[in-house]
Design a protein that fits this description.
This protein is of the alpha+beta class. The chain has one domain (10-117): NE0471 N-terminal domain-like. Helices cover 20% and strands 28% of the residues. The chain is built from four helices and eight strands, in the order E-E-E-H-H-E-E-E-E-E-H-H. It has helices at 40-45, 50-53, 101-106, 111-120; strands at 14-20, 25-30, 35-39, 54-55, 58-59, 75-81, 85-90, 99-100. A three-stranded antiparallel beta sheet has the order 1-2-3. It is globular. The relative contact order is 0.17.
Length: 131
Amino acid sequence: MGSSYVTGGEYLAPRAIHADRAAGSLEIEWSDGHSTVYDAIALRWLCPCAYCRGEAGQAGWLDGVPTLTADQTTLTDVQLIGSYAIAPVWADGHRTGYYTFGQLRANCPCPDHRAGREAAGPAHAEQEVRP
């Protein structure tokens, strides 16, 4: 007999992940039925790696708001990291960003989630997708 007890966080488990390289998008279907679609540019702006975000008090490359090239926003592969993250591979060779499922769900670009982050204030817009 299966348990109906919910421990929390189950919604963070993706049911399916699809990278559409031709369209330049990544779609995640979550366990709770919600679907998130990131375009490759927005996904690259979310890169959480030390080079892009900085470390030890130093600003990261993305903090300088660079102009991204086509190679920097062309998704060539997506690797699953355990049961908690994905690692996109970009045409420029960048591959060190581990995007946790929690981070991806928290930054879902759909109108409902965006409105929720805006209503919650700046503390909840941690790594908002840049235009």
